[in-house]
Amino acid sequence: MPYKLLSYAAGRDARAGLLVGDTVYDAAKATGVAAYARVLDILQDWSRAQRALTQAARRLAAGKSRLKGSSLARTRLLAPVLYPGAIFCAGANYRDHMLEMARVSGNPPEKDPHEVGLKPWHFIKTSRSSVVGPGARVALPAFSEKVDWEVELTAVIGRPARNVSVEDALRYVAGYTIANDLSARDVGRRPHVAEGSPFKMDWLSQKCFEGSCPLGPWIAPASEIPDPQKLAMKLWVNDELMQDSHTSEMIFTTAEQIAHLSTRVTLQPGDLVLTGTPAGVGMGRGRFLKAGETVRLWIDGIGELSNTMKG
């Protein structure tokens, strides 16, 4: 029986939830494992937890459990991982987006990185300050007038991964969720610093402002998404479709990214890998987010994430 793993508000606490159909059940109670009270606890024990969750979902779907749940509509969802140990974000990883950004900058299109021997390229977002959940109102930073949207397939790591091969990389993924890699485009380059200077870029201001990583609505187990390179993805601002692409447009696949990252650091359960965004960002349109606008993201097999911007 398909299920989704999520975090939900239980009074002042955050609890791990199991979504079966349209009903949310407490994951610890559903599995009978008291230690599975938080999603991070579940991810730390993923090799065993995934079996327990699958069995619990089957019992619940078949009506073989007396456990009472809450309707999804009446449940306040939180970001599914509270909070990731690390958030790795792929830059320039969609063919259509690279062409879009080359046009905006007036530069010729870049060559395929594989052809020139380049490896995947990542930056890091902050965790507790950046991550917000479904429905959260995100404050546009006062220091930026050009906040952009970026829909991204996000791999949630479920096993420690160090020096893993491309062929084995997806075995370390517990599941997938959706992230909006919000970006303050007008503060990424420090003024009064030469263009060729190694001190030009300001990644913190551009990528790590408060609420810059909306995440959710839940985690779809990897067993339900056997090939992360076969997923359609869309993003709307209000009701206007902005991004409409497919994960097959990735330059470096999800597996290639995880394998490469694992040669630099040990990926830990609960870490996130944001795999890049396709064409259709605001930078390519000269159009940026305003207070009161709602951004809605959808990825096939996962679901929909929505957040509203505020001043």
Task: List descriptors.
311 residues; alpha+beta; Fumarylacetoacetate hydrolase, domain 2; 2 domains; seven-stranded mixed sheet; five-stranded antiparallel sheet; 17% helix; 30% strand
Characterize the structure shown.
The chain is α+β, with helices and mostly antiparallel strands and 311 residues long. The protein folds into 2 domains: 4-78, no CATH class; 87-310, Fumarylacetoacetase-like, C-terminal domain (Fumarylacetoacetate hydrolase, domain 2, Alpha-Beta Complex). It is built from 6 helices and 19 strands. The chain has helices at 27-31, 39-44, 46-61, 95-105, 203-207, 254-264, and strands spanning 4-10, 13-20, 23-26, 70-71, 77-78, 87-90, 122-125, 131-132, 137-139, 147-148, 151-157, 173-180, 183-184, 213-221, 232-237, 240-246, 272-274, 294-299, 303-310. It has a 7-stranded mixed sheet with strand order 7-6-17-11-12-14-8. A 5-stranded antiparallel sheet has the order 4-3-2-1-5. The chain has a 5-stranded mixed sheet with strand order 9-19-18-15-16, with no helix packed on it. The protein starts with a strand and ends with a strand. The model has no long low-confidence stretch (mean pLDDT 95).
